Sequence to fold (204 residues):
Amino acid sequence: MYRAIGKEELQKALNFIERETHLRTKSFRMLSDGVQGEFLRAFSLMVSPRSILEIGTFTGYATVSLCAGLHPTGVVHTIEKDDELTDIFHRGFAIASLQERIRTYNGDAMEIIRSIEGSFDIVYIDADKRLYSDFFNLVKDRVVKGGWILADNVDWSGKIYSEKDHKDRQTASIIAFRDMILKEKGFRTTILPIRDGLAVMKKL
Fold:
C-alpha cells in the first residue's frame, strides 16, 4: 500500500515538467497540454487502475497525469526510447513523490513490453506512429476485460484527411491503425477530438 497521491504535489510536478520541456527541448509540441492532461487525470480517477502501461514517456507530463487516480497499490510502467531527457521526468516524478509508483524503462518498447509481467488496466500509446498497430497487437491480450487502451495523435495534425500526405509513412501508419481499431471486434472504440485526436478503446 502506497501513500496517497497529493494534488498539490501532482500540480507542482506538472508545472515543472511543462516549464522544463519548453526551456530545454525543441519538441515541446509533443507535450500533453493542460486539456489533455485534465482528461487523463479524470480518466484515471474514474478507472482507479492498478496497473498502467505507457508507451512513450517523453518528459513525463502524461505519466504524472495518469497517476492521479491510481489504486492505492497501483503502479505505472512507462517506456521511453530517447535517454537524453530522462532527468526531466525523474525530477518531475520526485516532485510528485511518485518514484516508488512509476517503473521507468529505456529502450525498445516492443522488447521491453514482453519483459513486463502481468496485465494492464490502462495502456497509453504515444510513441513511434509507425508502430502503433504493432503496439496494439502486442498489448491487446494483456489488457483486462473492461480495461482500456488509449492512443494519442490519431488525427496526426490533420494529415490523415489530406490525400497528398498519405504517402508519408507515419501518416499511412496512423490511417492503417485507425482502420484496424475501428474494426477490432474485441474493443469498443471512440475517437475524441482532444488536441491531436485521442482514440479511446474499451476491451469488451
